[in-house]
Write a structure and sequence with these properties.
The protein contains 2 helices and 13 strands. By secondary structure, the protein is mainly beta. The protein has one domain: Jelly Rolls, CATH 2.60.120.10. A 6-stranded antiparallel beta sheet has the order 1-2-10-7-12-5, with no helix packed on it. It has a 5-stranded antiparallel beta sheet with strand order 9-8-11-6-13, with no helix packed on it.
């Protein structure tokens, strides 16, 4: 697996190795041993998620789960194409409020490793997108949070001219300044 660092500390772009022949392919999408031995990251995933979006222009996020139940995520797009966004929500971080965008698709087969302390969102670029997630922590509704996708303080450039297809929860999410996000670099390293 090729591992590439990004401008946000701890956020990694992963490119799995595919072994292909006339039958198709095989790949290892995650190896706890490889992550531990190569990067010193020893994460146990306890929950998988699978989302399906019917239409291009669907936006999901900005989501995170507050302390004491933050989640590390490993995200990949197995059908279609998305723009995946990661936002640093660690209030004492040098990159607080900075964001990163990467394209994930069934063609490029890349994955993104998102440590706790970061918000996550994605925008579908094609119809019928499927995204798979691995989570290091179970879902706890009492700790689940969202930040308004159009928050000017964060200033994400979504790359779309029209209003996205979005859930009522995400549309009514608070701005970062009104959020109770409780991440600091100390608690999320």
């Amino acid at each position: 697996m090729e591992i590439m660092e990004t401008k946000l500390a701890g956020v990694l772009l992963l490119e799995p190795r595919y072994f292909e022949d006339f039958r198709g392919y095989y790949c290892e999408t995650y190896s706890r041993r490889a992550m531990r031995d190569e990067l010193g990251i020893d994460t146990e995933f306890v929950q998988d998620g699978h989302s399906f979006s019917l239409k291009a222009g669907t936006l999901r996020g900005i989501h995170f789960q507050n302390n004491p139940k933050p989640q590390i995520k490993l995200v990949r797009c197995v059908r279609g194409k998305i723009l995946d966004f990661v936002i640093d929500l660690q209030r004492d971080s040098k990159t607080f409020k900075q964001w990163l965008c990467v394209e994930l698709s069934e063609e490029n087969r890349n994955q993104i490793w998102i440590p706790s302390g970061f918000g996550h969102a994605f925008l579908t670029l094609t119809d019928n997108c499927e995204v798979l997630y691995k989570f290091s922590e179970l879902y706890f509704p009492e700790h689940s949070r969202a930040i308004k996708w159009s928050d000017p303080e964060i200033g994400i450039e979504w790359g779309i001219a029209t209003h996205p297809i979005i859930s009522a929860r995400d549309e009514s999410a608070p701005l970062l300044k009104d959020s109770d996000v409780n991440f600091t670099a100390d608690l999320n390293s």
